[in-house]
Amino acid sequence: MTAPTTFTEPYSNDGSQGTISGPPPTHDSTQGPTISADEIALYDRQIRLWGVKAQERLRNANILLITIKALANEVAKNLVLAGIGSLTIVDHEKVTEHDLSSQFFISADDVGKNRAEAAATRIRKLNPRVQLVVDTEDIHVKQPTYFLPYDVVIATELDLESLSTINAGARLAHRPFYATGTHGFYGYIFADLLAHEFVIEREKSNIPTALTLESPSRSIIGTSTKKENGKMVEMVTKRELYSPLLLANTAPLPPDYIGNRRKLRQVTPLLTGMRALWDFERTSGRLPSHSRADLESFTTLATEKHKELQLPPETLRSDFLQSFIQNLGSELAPVTAFLGGQLAQDVINVLGQREQPIQNFLLFDGQETRSPVYAMHPIIPFNIETTVSAI
């Protein structure tokens, strides 16, 4: 792999320049060169899982990854090893001693260096076939056009306001967006894939598959068949419609939960906890501390959010709230590994247009070893695609 060039480009509102190492990616995930024989040999095991066409889409994909901490390390590792075309990592912060406890792309010698630049050397070694671009400018000064070259935008470990701004920029550029973060034993993945089509393969049934609405956000839009190993296989094309994070964060639980006390009792209090956390950050500009005042303030916020979700009061336990606050700001390798692997696999499936993607809010509770997914969408009396496309 040739050494990357360094250039500067004015992306910020005030015309200031940020350093970007490596040539800028170009957006063309479908028309790139076909996969080579060497690549087929290198990626043989995964091609057996998802096929050559999906691997070709991967090797032509440009991915944007924002904030390079422990969780992003896992995402980068999985996507680079899978053989994506290019990865752009954006981080304006410097490596601290705290980063050394949870990140495997940096060492003690990197303290004080830019976090993205420090991680780049080891990321490149994972797979020299992947083009790596380093951007050391603050993501907050980027314009929506910045997101145009990318097939997927992934933002990690940011507050709700920052995530919503990036989500809005990605939507204006018509690019799929993921947000993800961890706090000790707890974490989440949010997906806004706009309108995403994918194919499910299954054994053909004697009953014809109807082109119909399967859920408020998912519909069957086409079917076809093929013969494989002497059996008829049906390929069902589905479309999922998504909401932006700003709307999903205030949306009610799915309709099948409302009024169903058994289901409501099973909803993880982590959903309440994340909403309360984002509200606390918005008003205080920081994470809650372990002080009595912050615990009382956070408990009040969480109680309000729990009530808004129409969840039984007894499911918001004091021991959970205490544990959640104690975990804030920490990074645990098993949790970042799980969530990083889940997110990377979802990105691979989305690029390959195969399998059901996350719809749309996955929550991971490492204390309970649960990772439920909730489809959080605003209640609207008409087509959700028409509404969210205007946001």
In spatial order, strands of the major sheet run 1-2-5-4-3-6-7-8-12-13
Q: State the order of secondary-structure elements, H for helix, E for strand.
A: EEHHEHEHEEHEEEEEHHHHHHEEH
Helix count, per DSSP?
Answer: 12
Can you tell me the residue ranges where pLDDT is under 50 for at least 5 consecutive residues? 1-17, 381-391
Major β-sheet profile = 10 strands, mixed
End-to-end CA span: 41 Å
Give the averaged pLDDT, no decimals.
87
Structural class: alpha/beta
Based on the model shown, name its key terms.
single chain; 391 residues; alpha/beta; 10-stranded mixed beta sheet; 12 helices; 21% strand; globular; disordered N terminus; disordered C terminus
How would you summarize this macromolecular structure in one to three sentences?
The protein has about 400 residues and is an alpha/beta fold. Helix content is about 35%, strand content about 20%.
Structural commentary:
The chain has about 400 residues and is of the alpha/beta class. Helices cover about 35% and strands about 20% of the residues. It has a 10-stranded mixed beta sheet, sandwiched between helices. α2 crosses α11. The chain starts with 5 loop residues before the first strand and ends with a helix. The relative contact order is 0.14.
SSE diagram, text form:
Layout: E1 6-10, E2 17-21, H1 37-42, H2 44-59, E3 62-66, H3 70-82, E4 86-90, H4 115-126, E5 131-135, E6 152-156, H5 160-172, E7 177-183, E8 186-192, E9 195-203, E10 218-228, E11 231-241, H6 245-248, H7 261-266, H8 270-284, H9 292-308, H10 318-327, H11 333-352, E12 361-365, E13 373-374, H12 384-388
Parallel strand pairs: 3-4, 3-6, 4-5, 6-7
Antiparallel strand pairs: 1-2, 2-5, 7-8, 8-12, 9-11, 10-11, 12-13
